[in-house]
Amino acid sequence: MALTIEQPGLLTTVQDQGRIGYYNVGIPQGGAMDQESAQAANKLVGNTAAEAVLECTYMGPSFTVDAPTTIAVTGADIPVLLNGTEQSAWTRIELAEGDAVKFGVLRGGARFYLAVRGGVDVPEVLGSRSTYAIGRLGGVDGRKLEAGDVVPVGSPVGELPSVAEIPESLRPALGGDQELRIVWGLYDHLLTDEGRRRLVEEEWKLTPVADRMGLRYEGPGVEWIQREQPFGAGQDPSNIVDAGYAVGSIQVPGGTQPIVLHRDAVSGGGYAMVGTVISADMDLLARATPGTSTRFRAVSMEEALEARRERARRIEGLWGL
Amino acid sequence: MAEIQSPLPGVFYRKPGPDKDPYVQEGERVETGQVIGMVEIMKQFTEVHSDVAGTLESFSVEDAAMVNPGDVLAVVDEG
After folding, report:
1. How large is the ipTM?
2. What is the pLDDT of residues A156-196, one digit of tens each?
């Protein structure tokens, strides 16, 4: 069983829950940027959370299947067209041999997920099938899909669930303004009080420079404390002596445009991280379209951990359907 | 009248490069499948094609403007 890719879309990659345990040697965790949506797609087709899905960005691929199978599309709001007829997303779709699937024009959100019963069965690399394109690791030949690719699909791993559709109440809201919760640190002490105030009280807009590595925002800029740069740090006040980067950490090169690092980001470097988007809000980031008005709201570590537990319960509820 | 929509978000350009001529000028004829501009997102440039033949009446957005999926980029008078 395989998908034959006719048009690849803009940036379609194989992703799973990520490649955990190698960040210390510079290999990012990767994995689906919107894990909650990816897991919902897997749920609908009788997969476990571990099966690999296709992550599609802004534009979808078109493909045909060489055997009957079951798919589901979740995440961003985009028309799913089966042999030219629109189907419901967040709902299980049965395909017959030779069926053709393509997508319309995006109506909301940024990334959508296509799960196939049995999961995308490319070889595991360092314990994951996720594509890390810069490192040429995982996925199909370590790259995004191209026209003509034949994407292998595994054998079913379990029964189809009784639910064929994710209820509206469990689907994420798309569009509108976003509020991203952050915890301060490790280097927010390098900002002036005014710089800190601007980050969490002013409005920022997502620029088109947003991908799996990071998302860049424009806004009023921040303000740094003037200091003599230490040996080993660059000359700009946004520079530090190299340090490890947390997933979700916010750096502001030059002090103008904050960048939030996402799952394919480098593991370290010389920009001060002034805050970190909490893990519970990383899926939300993946749903932002360019131009999205965004506010960063500082929360305590306790609030961040409670939000993480709440997200875990929500995902558990999804699997309990 | 047919509207040409952007299939994706990004920055719309009417020219293939900064020093190049626009793909097409307002009032000029376009053929089905002809490139009328491109949209840049994530360091990738995606060409935008006209689905119809006719006269490109007007562009609906400025050169180098931010566009969203479904935004009308240009209007073509079919025929």
Report:
1. 0.84
2. 999 999 999 999 999 999 989 999 999 999 999 999 999 99
Amino acid at A164: A
HSE on the CB side for B54, CA within 13 Å? 16
The number of beta carbons lying within 10 Å of the beta carbon of residue A201 is: 12
CA dist A141 → A3, A74, A123, A134, A266 (Å): 15, 25, 10, 12, 20
Please answer whether residues A265 and A245 qualify as being in contact, where contact means their C-beta atoms are separated by less than 8 angstroms. Answer: yes
In whole angstroms, what is the distance from residue A295 CA to residue A277 CA?
11
Q: What is the pLDDT of residues B10-24, one digit of tens each?
A: 999 999 999 999 999
Is the pTM value of this prediction over 0.80?
A: yes
All residues of chain B having their beta carbon less than 8 Å from the beta carbon of residue A57 are: 42
Report the CATH architecture of A178-319: Beta Barrel (2.40)
Q: Which two tokens stand for residue A144?
A: 């995004």
Cα dihedral A284, A287, A293, A298, rounded to 10, equals 10
Joined together, the tokens standing for residue A88 give 């419901």
Q: Answer whether A210 touches B (CB < 8 Å).
A: yes
Architecture of the CATH domain B2-78: Beta Barrel (2.40)
pLDDT at B79: 81
Mean pLDDT of B38-64: 94
**Whether the Cβ atoms of residue A48 and residue A157 lie closer than 8 Å to each other:** yes
Q: Do B7 and A208 touch (CB under 8 A)?
A: no
Crossing angle of helices A301-319 and A35-44, rounded to 10°: 10
Point out the residues of chain A with pLDDT beneath 50: none
Say how far apart CA A70 and CA A49 lie, in whole Å.
16
Closest Cβ–Cβ partner in A11, A211, A290 for B9? A290
Express each pLDDT in A206-218 by its tens digit. 999 999 999 999 9
- Region(s) of chain A under CATH 2.40.100.10: 178-319
In one-letter notation, the amino acid at residue A195 is: G
